[in-house]
Design a protein that fits this description.
The protein is globular. It is built from 25 helices and 21 strands. The chain is an alpha/beta fold and about 625 residues long. It folds into four domains: about 200 residues, Spore Coat Polysaccharide Biosynthesis Protein SpsA, Chain A, CATH 3.90.550; about 100 residues; about 180 residues, Spore Coat Polysaccharide Biosynthesis Protein SpsA, Chain A; about 100 residues, Rossmann fold (3-Layer(aba) Sandwich), CATH 3.40.50. Helices cover about 40% and strands about 20% of the residues.
Length: about 625
């Protein structure tokens, strides 16, 4: 049966993500498509997942090969087998949003286009972000085939191709391990007349945390850099008839992001041969671009100090920007994980010093001896996102402040877990709110200007906040191994009064307790006391009989007196029994801690004295 779209999915050991990928296809709002599952020798459970989908849905077709032939060869097999009018590519760890195929097909048919380009989302373990150049292209109804943004959008996965053009011009993927998409795209663009944009996110690209995929010593896959250079040389040949400005832009893109972001920022994982080839190629390509283009590359990558040239690992350490001081509070079992996340940073100009056994005043000594412009202290078990240090450094340069805090989150079963406690400090209102500083007390999520911290003369966080200027940055993410409770009780530099008074605002969390209530849970337990909330300055006659006959510790406050508001805020967190006068709903949404009880007196208070005395006895029993 003829299908409108053929979706080609190369697969190799994708058991952890494949089910979600194929489910996103199966649930598409557009139904008229076939799926060509090209498994090239998977050694995990991918084969079983493929069989299950093919058995359940006739649109899914199993095209397995025995050996690992690579992504390019697998896609070419898919192209040979495809019967659809249009071609869509999907990788085995990515997903298509619900209306992806429908949106692109509709634009292709309506405009009789040769190519449709949609928006693309990078779906990381810790955060999501829309890929900028695909956004620019997707927002255009008609895209000029010489549009510069196409040079920065190599991926074939956010595009819908016409099979007729591919077949008539014998367009295939070349046997490359890097930038093979770019060669295919530019080969196709030569034969395009009409390109349209799709203003929807049509593809979600999965980017796992690099330290989960690599160890600190794992190198770049052999041959990838050579293949990248070969790919750009081929693209230049394909585009030989383009204007000089266009060719210069290809070289500019080759330098950054491809060579600089893709390789030089991974300096610690390059071997000597790869570093030599990288240095040589950047030097050659630099001669093909303008001085203005090179200056912009240098400006965008200030932390790499490109004005000094491409450095060796030794030179990078000698020119380090950041001292990373690792204390003994980092556990032995976690140390390697932290180091993996550190050496997978895309800002490689740092040096590491570690606290030795029985080394007093380590943090002070590390600060006093530091010669780098910036310093951070690792005071508990954490892991970095791949861009944490770069974002923090960039923020310090932009804001001109003395230190920056990154947002910490938990990490459970491979997924990010936000802490409501920290959300307060890092929400839009809290980013520069000094009252919320005490919620952000650890050193591990901060990068300091070294000289500013030296002049401050203290490593007491409370005093640091009072002495130094700072900002909080939500997209500089740090994974903490501390629990929310450990974070809440660890405010060593602040008094109990400061901690409680700082939390005068409420935020519902997953347990329907307020953040304020949870703070009290850690610092002050529920007390055996009764709180009567009355409507007037004095309780009503029946309420007074009840209140006078309660033998337990008790307090009476008026809901409508402004001077009682602060005391009510405190007492509602710690009193075991809360009695509320009247029929109003002012207390109906009050979040309760475990062991607390809220009673609306209008529902239970009696008409005579005897009933109310009996109710007072029940209240004492509940206490």
């Amino acid at each position: 049966m003829k299908s409108e779209i053929s979706v080609i999915v190369p697969i190799y050991n994708n058991q952890n993500t494949l089910d979600e990928t194929l489910r996103s296809l199966q649930e598409q709002s557009f139904r008229d498509f076939e799926v060509l599952l090209v498994d090239n020798g998977s050694e995990d459970e991918s084969r079983q997942i493929i069989k299950e989908y093919c058995a359940a849905d006739e649109r899914f077709k199993d095209i397995g090969v025995d050996d690992n032939i690579g992504v390019s060869a697998a896609r070419n097999i898919g192209l040979e087998k495809a019967i659809g009018k249009y071609i869509k590519f999907l990788d085995g760890d990515d997903i298509l949003p619900y209306d992806s195929l429908k949106s692109m097909f509709k634009i292709m048919e309506k405009n009789k286009a040769d190519l449709v380009v949609g928006k693309m989302l990078r779906r990381g373990t810790l955060q999501k972000s829309e890929i900028k150049n695909t956004k620019f292209l997707g927002n255009k109804k008609i895209i000029d085939k010489n549009n510069i943004d196409l040079i920065y959008s190599f991926s074939v996965c956010n595009k819908l191709f016409k099979k007729e053009i591919i077949k008539n011009n014998n367009i295939k993927f070349t046997d490359l391990t890097h930038a093979e998409d770019g060669v295919f795209l530019f080969s196709y663009l030569k034969h395009c007349e009409k390109i349209c944009g799709c203003d929807q996110i049509v593809y979600e690209y999965y980017k796992p945390l690099p330290f989960l995929a690599y160890s600190a010593t794992t190198g770049i896959k052999e041959g990838m850099l050579n293949d990248l250079i070969s790919a750009f040389e081929t693209i230049i040949k394909i585009c030989k008839d383009k204007p000089e400005d266009y060719i210069r832009e290809i070289y500019n893109r080759a330098i950054d992001p491809s060579l600089v972001k893709g390789y030089y920022r991974k300096l610690h994982r390059l071997d000597d041969h790869e570093l030599s080839l990288l240095k040589k190629t950047i030097k050659e390509y630099r001669e093909r671009i303008t001085k203005e283009q090179w200056d912009n590359i240098v400006e965008r990558n200030k932390d790499l100090m490109l004005e000094k040239g491409i450095m060796s690992k030794k030179e990078a350490e000698e020119n380090s920007l950041i001292t990373v001081a690792v204390t003994k509070k980092v556990s032995e079992k976690h140390r390697d994980k932290f180091m993996q996340s550190l050496y997978c940073q895309d800002s490689p100009f740092f040096r590491v010093i570690e606290e030795k056994e029985n080394e007093p005043d380590f943090m002070k000594k590390a600060l006093d001896n530091s010669t780098t412009p910036y310093i951070t202290f690792i005071d508990h078990d954490i892991m970095y996102n791949d861009n944490t240090l770069r974002i923090m450094h960039k923020t310090l340069l932009k804001e001109g402040c003395d230190f920056v805090s990154g947002k910490m989150c938990g990490f459970h079963e491979g997924k990010k877990r936000d802490f409501p406690y920290l959300t307060i400090a890092f929400d839009a209102k809290g980013l520069k709110n000094k009252k919320r500083d005490i919620l952000d007390w650890t050193f591990s999520n901060k990068l300091f200007v070294t000289e500013a911290l030296k002049k401050c003369g203290t490593l007491d966080m409370g005093r640091i906040y009072k002495s130094l200027s700072h900002v909080r940055k939500r997209n500089a993410i740090i994974i903490t191994m501390l629990t929310e409770k450990q974070l809440m009780v660890g405010l060593q530099s602040f008094s109990l009064k400061e901690r409680i008074e700082a939390l005068t605002f409420y935020e519902q969390n997953r347990d329907k307790e307020t953040i304020r209530a949870r703070i009290y849970e850690n610092f002050k337990g529920v007390e055996k006391r009764v709180l009567l909330l009355c409507d007037e300055e004095e309780p009503g006659a029946r309420s007074k009989i009840l209140f006078d006959n309660i033998k337990s510790d008790k307090i009476c406050l008026c809901k409508n007196m402004p001077e009682h508001k602060k005391q009510i805020s405190k007492e509602t967190k710690i009193c075991r029994i809360i009695l509320s006068e009247g029929h109003d709903n002012s207390c109906s949404n009050m979040p309760l801690r475990e062991g607390q009880r809220l009673i609306a007196m209008a529902d239970v208070i009696g008409e005579n004295e005897e009933e109310n005395i009996r109710f007072a006895e029940l209240v004492d029993d509940m206490i």
